[in-house]
Amino acid sequence: MCRGGGMFAPTKIWRRWHRKIKANQKRYAVVSAIASSAVPSLVMARGHKIESVPELPLVIGDSAEKTSAAIDILKQTRNRRYISRKGSLIVYGTEGAKLVKAFRNIPGVEVANVERLNLLKLAPGGHLGRFVIWTKSAFEKLDSIDGSFDKTSEKKGYILPRSKMVNADLARTINSDEVQSVVKPIKKKVKRAPMKKNPLKNLNTMLKLNPYAKTARRMSLLAEAQRVKAKKEKLDKKRAQIPKVCLIPQEEAAAIKAVGKAWYQTMISDSDYTEF
To answer: What pTM was estimated for this model as a whole?
Structure first.
């Protein structure tokens, strides 16, 4: 067991911890997080208990001055008894409000200024749908800070992103009578492309392109047959001129072989070499 010592492969200060992102992308993310906080299904998916909340987004007054009053306003909006996780986010509008001191000591509850909204607080862990409680003054400032479809924003060169579709139900839009009356009917007959054939290998395809190909093919076959016939006749004529070799009978061949063996034995006996 190792006691003490340094950390293996420690984190370095020169590591690239941060990434530069365009300002419009940051603004788009913040606006999307604010919009998702008004969707009940996304808020409930994060674990917030909003069954008793009258409406989303929830707007309250700036009257809370003490922590006890702030707890009465919240009334356990998230069912966590022992583990303190991310709870509600209180957004205020006036700087130096007493509401900040009232909510800052409640575990899991965070406070943010509407002019300095942080994406890490609006969507902790990259998950949208945090339960956001707005004060009246903060909610009134949203149109001036981020703008609207009819009003420009205080941020230079920023326009509030507009949704591409008014009705997000795409299936309902496609199946509507207005769209189906303009769309072309379904093609029941499927027209398949014919298979292309090589005319050099397929005779019928070649005849469609060149009707004379059949006659040319027949003439080439006849000419080939004539060449084969002429070659055969020429070879037969040459073979007929070669004289036939007379074959020696078997008895005479055996006698000739015996004479050769006898001459060989005589030559060995008359020579100076002796067999060992």
So the answer is: 0.53
